[in-house]
Design goal:
The chain has helices spanning 28-35, 75-87, 164-174, 214-226, and strands at 2-8, 11-17, 46-51, 59-65, 70-71, 94-99, 102-108, 113-117, 121-132, 135-144, 149-155, 185-193, 196-203, 208-209, 235-239, 242-251, 254-263, 265-271. It has 279 residues and is an alpha+beta fold. The chain has an 18-stranded mixed β-sheet that branches.
């Protein structure tokens, strides 16, 4: 089985080409769990399986988290898949990728830099109260696409004084909070300058912090733009794996045209020979 390994700002993925339909979709969750496992396999935050388009796109991306759960979309993954699609001749420098959350358009900026238009927000709640620790915290709750990819965005300088283990324990609880009916990816943020945000995202399905989260960056910029905290133009979201730029349009209390720009890295091309694979 041939594979491609890529990452976008440290958010890493295994990509499989299934345009010929040789991989049963029912096998993909187990395949994701096996291939994304650290130490015993390739290791990754997620698995992306490229399959034929069904709604007028250039191709379709099925995204699975490392735990095998189906993800609605992945921003860093979509940027990587756009480069993969361009370099494998599936689309031109502008392309249309079908995802579970809806159509995503991508644009090649340079060999390694890609911009995508994320799915428009379908849910925006800038003042959602969440029970946590000794009281309650307030976050911005954003869902991108339909069905929506849920993100909870917390803004506080207090997070910088906590250890990584303390932040991990907090996010592990918040991720399953009943105020988030589908669970949520949890971003802890601090504004450090004009249009500059430090952030780390605890991703559901990975169940830990990742080095970067593209849809998290888009949700952060959307929430803070609507709140008047950033301009909405080339907002720099600095995550542990690198910087992502987000531009978002706001009008009448809502937001759309959320564009995410960032790097891609082609890590490896190869053949999976894992004797423990069940497919």
């Amino acid at each position: 089985m041939k594979f491609t390994k890529m990452h976008g700002a440290g958010n890493d993925f295994v990509i499989l080409n299934d345009l010929d339909g040789s991989i049963p979709e029912s096998a993909c969750p187990a395949l994701a769990r096996q291939l994304c496992a650290q130490h015993r396999s390739l290791g990754a935050d997620g698995l992306m399986v490229v399959v034929p388009a069904i709604a007028g796109g250039d191709y379709r991306m099925l995204f699975y988290n490392a735990d095998g759960s189906l993800g609605e979309m992945c921003g860093n993954g979509a940027r990587c898949i756009c480069r993969w699609g361009f370099e494998n001749g599936l689309a031109g420098e502008t392309q249309r990728v079908e995802t579970t959350a809806g159509l995503v358009t991508g644009e090649r900026i340079s060999k390694r830099m890609y911009r995508i238009r994320l799915n428009d927000p379908s849910v925006i709640d800038l003042q959602r109260r969440v029970a946590a620790r000794d009281g309650a915290l307030t976050c911005s709750y954003i869902e991108l696409g339909n069905p929506g990819l849920p993100h909870a965005v917390f803004l506080s300088d207090d997070f910088s004084h906590e250890t990584l283990d303390e932040k991990r324990a907090l996010c592990a609880r918040l991720r399953y909070a009943p105020e988030f009916p589908k669970g949520a990816n949890v971003s802890l943020c601090r504004i450090v300058g004009p249009d500059h945000v430090l952030a780390a995202t605890y991703e559901r399905g990975v169940e830990d912090f990742t080095l970067a989260c593209g849809t998290g960056a888009g949700s952060i910029a959307t929430a803070f733009t609507l709140a008047g905290l950033v301009s909405g133009k080339d907002v720099r979201i600095s995550m542990p794996g690198g910087d992502l730029l987000v531009t978002v349009s706001v009008h009448d209390g809502t937001a759309d045209h959320v564009y995410l720009t960032g790097p891609t890295n082609l890590v490896a091309l190869g053949e999976i020979t894992d004797e423990d694979l069940t497919i």
